[in-house]
């Protein structure tokens, strides 16, 4: 960039300035941009600028076989990929009327909760580093790697494990894997005390986040907020409990809530969620050895698999919120239409624009991270 | 030192014996402190924090993230680049000071990967900017990333990582590819030809039909309009 290529634009005198956050900015999560208009350090208006990660998933899926689509579904949300596979499989099973064996259902629950734990550790790291604390980021990544190792042993992939298939899961668990899961999560539980000392009881963190980005219940419902962000506003809604899928109705867990609706409440809800995830994982580990049987229902030849015509809308709870898919089949070997309703679409665009009004400039990145949006899911 | 600056980079090695020693020392130093640009361009970016943090620890090799393109040496293109991102990637690349290196991580930068059918992504990264090292995989493990970075370090130390010179020497080709994708009025505020003259890297492929088109369109750039 050469200064002589630039010419100052004459503008009427004003104390309003316009700033671009991102896409190449350390305070932005992923490849995402946010444009703000500031006066002093108060943000007057913000505008989300998404589309840097658009790959046209919904169109790509129309050109692939039902079985091929499993491989591209986890790419929609990178930090938490398992719910994407599971919900695609649930949609296809619903269209075909397939019965999933009990053992596969328990294995899916176990995977989803492990993935949720890993996504939360990723989230705490990001939230810590927006406040200038890098240690939670380093610890969170190292602890997340232990979970990724378990996934690698189960299915070969660290992040994208294409383990689910319509009708069940691809293969059974290795010998002694459940003991290793159990000991890993025991270790992670013993680490949570350190996270509390480092972040959640840290006065720097509490004073930076308390009362920032307040969302009340009415606004949250109008803007379509779901998941932990909704529970931080005092509304205990969760698809796992209120519209149970898989075997969540046989599991015993609570839904932690907070009333404040600010950044601190959003972090504390996720912090309290970790205990519930540990409870679910322990119940699954206890129940899984007693459930025998196949891990997969028989499926027809995958290369000539005509799914019966119809449409379905399935939803699951991912670590970001309520994730839903609308899949239409015209009776052919490819989906006629597949639409993703990701939780991040509302969190990263409407909610962020709403919360940015009147916020301080230094809190914008923190609000963005505390909403835990996932930019690839916005763009798809 | 002042005399060294007068010799174009390309001829230093051949003419001045002192510069020969000096260049090798510089290449060693450059290979031991690589600052990666903190630009997460795709899903491969999720495997970069494990590379940097406690378990695989890239900082023991002198590889560390840097937030600004002005201070970075390595541009990591982690995954698919959509057309909207590619404009920013090229602008970022041109802002980085030479010597600069590009690492294409994930299969999507090699040939489009899983998105070869997509209407929104650029398929082959080396069509639009020169690439030093490709790391294949979807996504590559952190060990693979570290191994690729060690290959890059070795290439820099032996003076073989010269993709940035390739960009100056064949600027017309790269600009033509970019114009084919973004339209004939595509331009960045960077003066590549001026920089190529500075480094003594002007060849017969630096200027051409596409750069003439650029000069026709080129006028003093207005500040970017923000639509709120």
TrEMBL record, chain A:
- A GO CC term assigned to this protein in UniProt: plasma membrane
Q: Name one Pfam family in it.
A: Complex1_49kDa
Q: Which residues form the NADH-quinone oxidoreductase subunit D domain?
A: 132-297, 305-380
Q: Where in the cell is it found?
A: Cell membrane
The protein's superkingdom reads Bacteria
* Top enzyme class: oxidoreductase
This chain's function reads: NDH-1 shuttles electrons from NADH, via FMN and iron-sulfur (Fe-S) centers, to quinones in the respiratory chain. The immediate electron acceptor for the enzyme in this species is believed to be ubiquinone. Couples the redox reaction to proton translocation (for every two electrons transferred, four hydrogen ions are translocated across the cytoplasmic membrane), and thus conserves the redox energy in a proton gradient.
Cite the PANTHER family for this sequence: NADH DEHYDROGENASE [UBIQUINONE] IRON-SULFUR PROTEIN 2, MITOCHONDRIAL, NADH-UBIQUINONE OXIDOREDUCTASE 49 KDA SUBUNIT
Q: What is this protein called?
A: NADH-quinone oxidoreductase subunit D
In which organism is this protein found? Thiolapillus brandeum
UniProtKB/TrEMBL annotation, chain B:
Q: Which GO terms describe its cellular component?
A: respiratory chain complex I
Domain NADH:ubiquinone oxidoreductase-like 20kDa subunit, by residue range, is 40-150
Task: Report the EC number(s), separated by commas if there are several.
Answer: 1.6.5.11
In terms of InterPro entries, this protein maps to: NADH_UbQ_OxRdtase-like_20kDa
From what superkingdom does this record's organism come? Bacteria
Instruction: Return the broad EC class.
Output: oxidoreductase
Question: Which keywords belong to this entry?
Answer: Oxidoreductase, Quinone, Translocase, Ubiquinone
Query: A single GO molecular function, which one?
Result: iron-sulfur cluster binding
Matches recorded under Pfam families:
Oxidored_q6
GO process terms (BP): aerobic respiration; electron transport coupled proton transport
Which PANTHER family does this chain map to?
NADH DEHYDROGENASE (PTHR11995), NADH DEHYDROGENASE [UBIQUINONE] IRON-SULFUR PROTEIN 7, MITOCHONDRIAL (PTHR11995:SF14)
**Name of the protein:** NADH-quinone oxidoreductase subunit NuoB
**Which organism does this record belong to?**
Thiolapillus brandeum
